[in-house]
Amino acid sequence: GAVVSQHPSWVICKSGTSVKIECRSLDFQATTMFWYRQFPKQSLMLMATSNEGSKATYEQGVEKDKFLINHASLTLSTLTVTSAHPEDSSFYICSARGRNENNEQFFGPGTRLTVL
Amino acid sequence: GQNIDQPTEMTATEGAIVQINCTYQTSGFNGLFWYQQHAGEAPTFLSYNVLDGLEEKGRFSSFLSRSKGYSYLLLKELQMKDSASYLCAVMDSNYQLIWGAGTKLIIKP
Fold it and tell me: Per the CB < 8 Å rule, is A108 touching B48?
């Protein structure tokens, strides 16, 4: 089956630092990758959608300059949280979609970010 | 606007059957997904419906009525490990997933 990995699984950082999260599709080519954020006891919130080789499309209310997304290849997308603050602490999940007939998104295991 | 509604929480007994409903209003429709999410983990795929009717997969079944904007997830022979949140998501005309808030299912012995 399709596997998506995320690294790191969890990260603790000081306020003001930047954190990079990697999302990789291990056994398929991800034409589209999605980045979600999930606060405790809430549903997934889509942050941005990225297609390989093009700029990400951000959802309303998501700051492009704060959440930098790069989708440089068909197997790798990165999310960089710049100048992180405690309110950015959340569970960040990526998903990837390839050329499958069900338009299914395959989720990574998530990255728990805690900003002190 | 786009909207997905599902109950916030449900309780069922081990070995029983439970039905989780989902109603939706979206701009376009390219399929409805059900995902299971255990606390602290990412969602895992359960089912995909794009045509009306029932899709059965082991203990889990999913039903769709496009004319009614309605779906349900049916879980049979409930096990304690089925305690999780169940997320309903609809793919709209732009192939974006619109997510419901999830239904927390509590299984009691």
Answer: no
Q: What share of residues in chain A are helix, strand, coil (percent, to 5)?
A: 5, 50, 45
Inter-chain touch A107–B30, beta carbons under 8 Å:
no
Whole-angstrom CA distances from A77 to A1, A53, B13, B91, B106 are 20, 10, 42, 22, 35
Strand A45-51 and strand A57-58: the pairing is antiparallel
Give the pLDDT band (50/70/90) at residue A101.
Answer: low
Instruction: Compute the average pLDDT of residues A2-15.
Output: 93
How high is the mean pLDDT of chain A?
90
Q: Give CA separation, B97 vs A55, A106, B2, B87, in Å.
A: 19, 12, 11, 11
Whether residues A103 and B96 touch (CB distance < 8 A) is answered with no
Phi and psi, residue A15, nearest 5°: -60, 135
pLDDT digits (tens, 9 = 90+) for B17-60: 999 999 999 989 999 999 999 988 989 989 999 999 999 989 99
Asked whether the bond before A86 is cis by omega within 30 degrees of 0, the reply is no
Tell me if B68 sits within 8 A of B54, measured CB to CB: no
| Tokens found for residue A93 | 């999940």
CA–CA separation, A97 and A71 (whole Å): 13
Q: How far is A95 from chain B (nearest CA, A)?
A: 9
